[in-house]
């Protein structure tokens, strides 16, 4: 009922086996952890009464479906001051990355300012490319101005005081966004954290895409030197991720090593599907 000689059906079924095996490998590890911590593979989180994460599980940013996410264990000591400092840093980085992401996107959509960026050097705004290529075009005095402004902002923000009180609360109440309604305020602050986290991932993705293809919107086809091309048409390369090798196991393009890892992946996937069932 499963074996077939039809090439399209066979490819689809083998891809499904790989995808299900990958899911099962994640699932069985999750079951092991849940069983070990709560006494059952279906154990209620409420049973894990010794968890230091309970100190922070009701904080802002603890959102479905992940809940409180700290796989490395930064908060396992339950230190409130350390948690506040990290939350303050997370909010700050999120805000910077939201601005940076919009800075990448906006010139592509709306165009650039008219006039000169540097009249003394005859440099127009239109002459500055978008993305990483702009780094080499901005004059030295422009960098001095930007760094000085960033330093001034950092000094005036007084993040030490921020950590002592409410992380991220700089005393600014933007019109139309600030509210005294507790439910609305909580929802908006959670939204800020979620969008900031997304923006941190987005801007790093834009940097990589820009660096590899020459544009933040660059086509993967432009990255002709990629060793991953040797395996991008293999089984298991599926949307939306495509060929996924963040650690770079296949960067040497070695076909034998790829086949050995694929064999191990399939075997582990099959074992984990059985174990999960």
Q: Can you characterise this structure?
A:
The chain is an all-alpha fold and 277 residues long. The protein is built from six helices and two strands, in the order ααββαααα. It has helices spanning 7-38, 80-110, 140-157, 159-164, 182-213, 255-276, and strands at 116-118, 123-124. A two-stranded antiparallel sheet has the order 1-2. A hairpin with a 4-residue loop joins strand 1 (116-118) and strand 2 (123-124). The longest helix is centred in the first third of the chain and has 32 residues, at 7-38. It is flat, with a radius of gyration of 25 Å. It starts with 6 loop residues before the first helix and ends with a helix.
* Cα-atom radius of gyration: 25 Å
Report how far the terminal alpha carbons are from each other. Answer: 20 Å
Strand content: under 5%
Helix amount? 40-55%
Q: What string, H for helix and E for strand, traces the elements in order?
A: HHEEHHHH
**Average pLDDT, to the nearest integer?**
83
Task: Report the sheet with the most strands, covering strand number, pairing sense and barrel closure.
Answer: 2 strands, antiparallel
Extract low-pLDDT stretches: none
Beta strand count: 2
Structural class: mainly alpha
Query: What overall geometry do the principal axes of the alpha carbons give?
Result: flat
Q: What's the oligomerization state?
A: single chain
Helices, by number, come to: 6
Biggest sheet: strands side by side, in what order?
1-2
Quick recap:
The chain is an all-alpha fold. 51% of the residues lie in helices and 2% in strands. It has helices at 7-38, 80-110, 140-157, 159-164, 182-213, 255-276, and strands spanning 116-118, 123-124.
